[in-house]
């Protein structure tokens, strides 16, 4: 089973407008409200791929109940810990080919609520082979929280795919217990090491830094340019075909889902890389975030080129 973790989930509200008018009323005729957060995008794509999974994290209040009801409707198994605070909302206004977002920071999670989640997490690991940890941490939780989860996963021989950024990512990779896979972009790699990266060769040199020792997979996503991947001591260049992009939001989460699914199926490294790229691309071809059309999987899969560097 794959366990997906979303510590700061949200109700994602999408408002499509032909034009956003400032300092006046904008009337909406069509609105979309979905169970959101990076880890829940991962969950949806895993479900569409037919994976065995459970979604977890923390939820609270009326919006927390609404979120779990939406997961029930989507047929996604879940086992969230309850908190006193209200689950946040995040608003995306789609207008004139642009996307303006209004993101709530989310509720504060107490020490007692954190301990309850960790206890729940340890129980869920009993049937788990891979864990995906995605996104930011809510207020009240320290940057080392993911390191704690990774340490407990290591003790249970469970592999963690980590997709976060900033100080939380830095703290996690500097811990004695390493994630199995990380998925940073070029900018995040540069920020972690405090140096500029201006070429593929510089990126590859950066990935050899001792900061990344002990991490089995580093998937550096490059948008339309594909990815540079380090697996063990080997480096790969992944080239993807040109596609028509409808909505790129959630593509990184979909990539994590594809990687986790392929790893859970014991695919060879080339197939793991291709699967991650395919699910990321499939998400960009859909209006909804964290959705893919699996009927198009094989066609894109066969167009991806993986070259060992």
Set out the fold topology.
Blueprint: E1 2-6, E2 10-17, E3 32-36, H1 38-49, E4 53-59, H2 61-73, E5 81-82, E6 88-95, E7 98-103, H3 111-124, E8 130-134, H4 145-155, E9 159-163, H5 166-174, E10 181-182, H6 186-193, H7 200-207, E11 217-221, E12 227-231, E13 234-239, H8 251-264, H9 269-284, H10 297-301, E14 305-308
Parallel strand pairs: 1-4, 1-8, 2-6, 4-5, 8-9, 9-10, 10-11
Antiparallel strand pairs: 2-3, 6-7, 11-12, 12-13, 13-14
Helix pairs in contact: 1-8, 4-5, 8-9
Number of domains: 1
| Helix run count | 10
What percentage of residues falls in helices of 4 or more residues? 25-40%
What is the CATH C-level name?
Answer: Alpha Beta
The CATH superfamily is identified as Ribokinase
Structural class: alpha/beta
Key descriptive features of the protein:
309 residues, alpha/beta, UDP-N-acetylmuramoyl-L-alanine:D-glutamate ligase, 10-stranded mixed beta sheet, 14 strands, 24% strand
Description:
The chain is an alpha/beta fold and 309 residues long. The protein has a single domain, classed as UDP-N-acetylmuramoyl-L-alanine:D-glutamate ligase, CATH 3.40.1190.20. Helix content is 36%, strand content 24%. It has 10 helices and 14 strands. The protein has a 10-stranded mixed sheet with strand order 5-4-1-8-9-10-11-12-13-14, with helices on both faces. A 4-stranded mixed sheet has the order 3-2-6-7. Strand 8, helix 4 and strand 9 form a beta-alpha-beta unit. Helix 1 crosses helix 8 and helix 4 packs parallel to helix 5. It is globular, with a radius of gyration of 19 Å.
């Amino acid at each position: 089973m794959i366990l997906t973790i979303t510590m700061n989930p949200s109700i994602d509200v999408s408002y499509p407008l032909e034009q956003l008018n400032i300092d006046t009323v904008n009337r909406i005729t069509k609105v979309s409200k979905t169970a959101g957060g990076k880890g829940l995008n991962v969950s949806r794509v895993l479900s569409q791929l037919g994976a065995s999974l459970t979604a977890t994290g923390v939820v609270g209040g009326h919006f927390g109940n609404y979120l779990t009801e939406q997961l029930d409707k989507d047929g996604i198994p879940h086992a969230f810990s309850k908190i006193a605070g209200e689950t946040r909302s995040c608003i995306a206004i789609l207008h004139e080919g642009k996307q303006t977002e209004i993101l709530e920071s989310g509720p504060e999670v107490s020490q007692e609520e954190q301990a309850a989640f960790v206890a729940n997490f340890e129980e869920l690991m009993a049937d788990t082979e891979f864990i995906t940890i995605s996104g930011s941490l809510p207020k009240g939780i320290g940057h080392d929280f993911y390191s704690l989860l990774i340490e407990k996963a290591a003790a249970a021989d469970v592999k963690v795919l980590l997709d976060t950024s900033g100080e939380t990512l830095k703290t996690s990779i500097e811990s004695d217990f390493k994630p199995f896979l990380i998925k940073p972009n070029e900018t995040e790699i540069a920020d972690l090491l405090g140096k500029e990266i201006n070429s593929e060769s510089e990126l590859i040199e950066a990935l050899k830094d001792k900061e990344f020792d002990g991490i089995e997979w580093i998937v550096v996503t490059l948008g339309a340019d594909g990815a540079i991947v380090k697996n063990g001591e080997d480096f790969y260049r992944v080239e993807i075909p040109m596609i028509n992009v409808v909505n790129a939001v959630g593509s990184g989460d979909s990539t994590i889902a594809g990687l986790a699914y392929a790893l859970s199926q014991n695919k060879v490294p080339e197939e793991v890389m291709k699967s991650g790229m395919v699910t990321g691309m499939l998400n960009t071809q859909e209006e909804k975030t964290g959705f893919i059309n699996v009927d198009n999987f094989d066609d894109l899969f066969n167009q991806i080129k993986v070259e060992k560097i």
